[in-house]
């Protein structure tokens, strides 16, 4: 009897241990299952907000500047001073040797942008489209890049001491892929002899932009027109029946009697277009709707960023929110870009910060040593993906100014990053070398060769 109780006790004890271990294991499995479910939901949320893996152009890329560059105290380099110093031994940091050449790049190296390097056209000549913008023409399914043609000697204007090149005209380049550009010529030429003309070569023509008017069929060009002292501060307008010109110059004006310097144009989804320009001697940004034929402004002016001293506006739209990238006013010296957003083109505009991501602190504080000029949608990429166009000016030799094209990503206001760096909702990512999204075979989803 005692042996039976003892054996039964041992058996009950074993069953108790087994049951306890089983319950503990079940609890662990339940807890693990709950944790997995939570992590899965987090991954679903994160995937919706910022898909894994990150697109190639959204990878954060740092920049390490290896000393000594021949400088006496490499650990005390002031990059802004070195940038403006034509004899600096650090010059190749900002103006790298080599070129992007669509004629000769190897197949596995095609379609890569290399910010800061010389960019050649399909004839092998450096592209001259500074301060410009890109128009996608739906008729021809072709991109057209317009800009200042600065292939002339740099000198300092007597009136202001500002580095400048005589006005040559507005250039045009065409492309099917935003990478290989064919030179279409000077589509609006300077005036060589008539000193009273707005386009006289000793005056100022800057930041040309072109939009298409579906009502009239005309291509309308806007540009900053000024005299040698920068006191005229007007907007010039020209039109053409073709995106490749020639453009006929119509007139200049001060929009609604306000001075106008750095400017851009923006065409909204409904066809209404707007002139956006620095005014009141760059103290504020003005926005004015254009007439139906796009050759004048309506009697309406919204004032934005009053007292902020911003210039070089680049305006774009994503999911019913308007965004504007601007530069500070520091002449040829680069400065910090800021992004502003608004639910209406007329504002109010809210400043949401510096969009630059990657490189290093000095590069971010100087907009990668470039200045904004335009923003275009990135073909073949996901929602909220754009290309940020900027100029890296070379005041010592303006014809050798370079282009800095970088990926720009926009997140919606209600989106939050989970487990990712909390950079701005509008982010411009630094890359020494990058390209728009491609398939596994290396071909782009949209690239069409110019020869095709």
UniProtKB/TrEMBL annotation:
Signal peptide: none annotated. CDD domains: GH43_CtGH43-like. Keywords: Glycosidase, Hydrolase. Belongs to the glycosyl hydrolase 43 family. PANTHER family: GLYCOSYL HYDROLASE 43 FAMILY MEMBER, GLYCOSYL HYDROLASE FAMILY PROTEIN 43. This is Uncharacterized protein. It comes from Rehmannia glutinosa (Chinese foxglove).
